Amino acid sequence: MNNYLYCLKCDQEQEFEVRQEKESYPVRGEQTEIIARVTYCKQCGEQIWNEDLDEANLKEAYRKYRTNHNLLQPEEI
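The chain above was modelled as a monomer; its predicted structure follows.
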């Protein structure tokens, strides 16, 4: 991951920082809360969409859902 992402508010690529925050994701009709990794612009403080972290957060939500419902994880199949 490089050190810059496009910030809509600044209208240019900016350095960012990653913060951890509670987020809720809908998984199979159930809200599943995780501690997500989220990127923020270091210049203006606006949240910046990060495809890599968004995908990782979604995978973590599905992992937690499977754990909560005693389902096998992909590596256990």
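The mean pLDDT is 96.
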